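step=predict obj=UPF0246 protein NCTC10283_02033 n=259
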Amino acid sequence: MYFLLSPAKNLNETRDFTPKIYSQPPLLDQAELLMNDLRPLAPQQLAELMHISDKLALQNAERNAAWQAPFTPDNAKQAIYMFNGDVYEGIDAYNRNENEISYIHNHVRILSGLYGIVRPLDLIQPYRLEMGTALPNSRGKNLYEFWGERVTTRLNFTLGCSEDDIVVNLASQEYFKVIQPANLNARIITPVFKDGKNGANYKVVSFYAKRARGLMVRYAAQNAIEDVELLKQFDLEGYAFNAAASSENEWVFLRNHVE
């Protein structure tokens, strides 16, 4: 069983304590090709391409200029500690113990516009390149055309040959689009997290849903879950599985806010 996550735009680039164990992104050679397309872009071009402020564009132009392989603990950081958005606050990697981090590394894969797919303890250098960015490249007009079948092929390599493999899709639609479900050797289960008030009007609230995706990974790590059915017992921060609202491969978790 593997969980798929999106990356985060917010990064923690400080030299915090992180485990001495690390690995290299499996598609780093492909990331270098993309960086060759990114590095020549001036801040103004990045601002237009990514629809970001001039300040962020300058920051990312500087990141691109400094980006260089090989990655070491001195110039890079493990992905699970670098990403700093709502999902990763839900995981709370800095407060996970050694066994939990090992579980996360072995069961989680993070989709990335620049790196394709990374494991939690893979070293990465700071970047900003969302999967939906229309970056012209050697393979097409956007990142979906650049990655093609490569991310799915890599995930299949990770899954192996078991007929019982499960992928728990906790990624956003933007990132999951890089996966080719018809070619994936696994059953895909997509948890959906909805919040309501006084037992009614349940809907997906982006901030809460992102955090809940991280909470589910935390729950799985804390309980060393190997059987996907046990995820239906997920109950962190008030969520509960709702069988009536769920289907075979879309599992709905509801949380009620009482006013």
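step=describe
The CA atoms of residues 87 and 210 lie 5 Å apart.
step=end
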